[in-house]
Specification:
Length: 390
């Protein structure tokens, strides 16, 4: 006989978003069950960079959400028992043409108008931040509040703390159906049995569209592959996060910042680099719509390596030791989908975080916890509603 369980709240997905929601719900004393079909951080949250980047967010609601998340990180780093390697290291966006510089200047102005500190740097100024930059680099913008975190430690740390506060985590347990009667969520059917619950949060990353189908709601989240190269470990060489302006172009679909050649456009190539606490450099990345294929490809590996040399020529001396690819849960506009569903009480969406889920995890956790427990949120999440697409 399959087991019958019950929980005040069921969170579907044990990635960084599900773990953050479970953590903040537990802090409020809620009874929580996290259902994860594979293992914690087995999805995008375990195959990504750790940028907590503010200057790459769109001015407006997106930036405000990210700034609130950034405010929460230091407290989180203190509270979790796991070292999440959080470091407010600052971030650079590098331009390789005067057109890109112009675009970065315009963005810096808009971001500053919203209270974010951003400085425009000349190529000469970059000497204070980087050992050497490529000849193409014309300058860039610097945000001192940009930070870095270990995404796997963050996910595991949040889940561990939630568990200590009473959450149950079901690993290797897949949600197969959700029962709705009289316009209210009642039950979640899983491979380990049924869970009676009147509140269900979908934090299933690229599995969210499938979860939506269970309640006949179209959740427009598609997998977008991102590939990363990992170098050997070195003494600290990168003080800050580094990204090329083209990274922002491919991420936010900004025409003036798109890569110049057709192959890079096809791969959605944009340069990123960070040095992890263990000394390895993570060099990225791509944005490809190839279904659920999360394999790396030689074509992308070569393109990422060539692109990295344009910005940081000295990485040529470093050996690449491995590579990986992850699937970003991508919404049509690249912004998260947060909120309730019309006509179905007790169902909440926290998905579609695209390339920003690590950065936005704390604010998503707090906000969804408020929504589930109080029915309202301290931040306005209306701009992130599913219904903006209808
Ligand atoms: C290459 C790359 C680089 C990135 N860099 C950054 C970065 O620097 N900064 C940043 O902020 N973001 C970054 N991101 C984005 C970030 O990784 C994601 O936005 C974030 O991890 C999404 O978290 P999630 O919990 O929504 O999804 P996931 O981590 O994918 O978790 C969803 C979980 O749901 C589970 N699941 C799905 N369906 C079911 C089901 N039916 N039943 C039970 N469980 C289910 C899955 O197994 C999975 O574990 C990057 C992504 C990639 C790929």
């Amino acid at each position: 006989m399959p087991e019958v369980m019950s929980s005040e709240v069921v969170v579907i997905g044990g990635g960084v978003i599900g773990a953050a929601i479970a953590y903040y719900l537990c802090r409020e004393g809620a009874e929580v069950m996290v259902v994860e079909e594979d293992d914690l951080a087995s999805g995008a949250s375990g195959a990504c960079d750790g940028f907590v980047s503010l200057q790459t967010k769109a001015p407006g609601y997106h930036l405000r959400l990210a700034m609130e998340s950034a405010r929460l990180f230091p407290e989180l780093a203190e509270d979790l028992d796991v070292d999440i390697e959080y470091r407010r290291c600052g971030g650079l966006l590098l331009a390789t043409s005067q057109e890109q510089m112009k675009e970065l200047r315009g963005r810096a102005k808009a971001l500053k108008a919203e209270g974010l500190e951003v400085e425009i740097l000349t190529a000469g100024d970059l000497k204070d931040f980087l050992p050497e930059v490529g000849k193409e680099v014309k300058g860039g913008s610097y945000c001192p509040l940009d930070a870095q975190v270990n995404p796997i430690s963050l996910t595991l740390g949040l889940a561990k703390k939630a568990q200590e506060m009473g959450a149950t985590i079901l690993r290797g347990c897949k949600v197969e159906n959700i029962v709705v009667t009289n316009n209210r969520v009642r039950e979640v059917h899983t491979t380990a049995g049924s869970i009676h619950s009147r509140r269900v949060v979908c934090a299933a990353g690229v599995g969210s569209n499938q979860i939506g189908k269970m309640i006949i709601v179209d959740v427009p989240v598609l997998p977008q592959r991102g590939q990363i190269l990992v170098t050997e470990s070195r003494e600290p060489v990168l003080k800050t996060l580094v990204a090329g302006a083209e990274y922002l172009g491919t991420k936010a679909n900004i025409q003036g910042l798109m890569p110049a050649d057709a192959e890079s456009v096809k791969l959605g190539l944009g340069f990123t680099a960070e040095q992890t606490a263990s000394g390895n450099l993570l060099l990225g990345s791509t944005r490809e719509f190839v279904g659920f294929d999360n394999q790396t490809t030689p074509e992308a590996m070569n393109a990422i390596a060539r692109n990295a040399l344009r910005y940081l020529p000295w990485v040529e001396d470093m050996d690449v030791i491995r590579s990986f690819a992850g699937l970003r849960p991508c919404s049509p506009d690249g912004l998260p989908i947060l909120g309730t569903i019309k006509g179905i009480r007790g169902f909440y969406l926290a998905t579609g975080h695209s390339g920003d889920g690590i950065c936005l995890a704390p604010v998503t956790g707090v906000t969804i916890s408020e929504l589930v427990l109080d029915g309202e949120t301290s931040l306005d999440i209306a701009p992130f509603s599913l219904y903006r697409f209808k």
